[in-house]
Amino acid sequence: MITDNKTLDRQALPVLLEQTEVAVEKVCTDGAYDVQSCYAAIKKKQAQAVIPPKSNAVMSSKAVLADRNANLEQIGKVGVKEWKKQREYHRRSLVECSFFRLKVIFSEKLRSRREATQKTEARMRCAALNRMTELGMPDSYIVQ
């Protein structure tokens, strides 16, 4: 899905999940997605929502927010840091890094003007990045 710079990520999530043809087990996002429409879309896909609730979040009686309530309850018991560890929330940052690499290597802007060719250009960029990743990621070492 290609959006303009005015579209919020949380607005695009329901559409993206609807387009997904494979089973989705878990959806990990940052706190900006802590809105009912995202939880509804994730629930419709029968996936688990791993979204850190806002700091002023309270329990809700709405069935669509069951995952949010469970997250709130667990955070209350073990704290945010431990909750993130337990839910493997750190994996989200790996995805963020991939998008950062994509934008650094190929630019944030698409060169094509028509939507159909923009989609092709975006797919080509993803295919190229995936190929580079298949060839091997660099090893990182701590320098002291």
Class derived from helix and strand content: mainly alpha
Q: Tell me roughly what share of residues is in helical segments.
A: 40-55%
Strand order of the largest sheet: 1-2
How far apart are the first and last residues' alpha carbons, in Å?
43 Å
Radius of gyration: 18 Å
Could you report the average pLDDT, rounded to the nearest whole number? 90
Summarize the main sheet.
Answer: 2 strands, parallel
Encode the helix/strand succession as letters: HEHEHHHH
Gross morphology is: globular
Beta percentage is under 5%
Separate helix tally: 6
Tell how many strands the DSSP assignment holds: 2
Give the low-confidence spans: none
Report on the structure:
There is one protein chain. With about 140 residues, the chain is mainly alpha-helical. The chain has a domain at about 10-85. About 55% of the residues lie in helices and about 5% in strands. The protein has 6 helices and 2 strands. The chain has helices at about 10-20, 35-45, 65-80, 80-85, 90-105, 115-135, and strands at about 25-30, 50. α2 links the parallel β1 (about 25-30) and β2. The longest helix has 21 residues, at about 115-135. About 10% of the residues are buried.
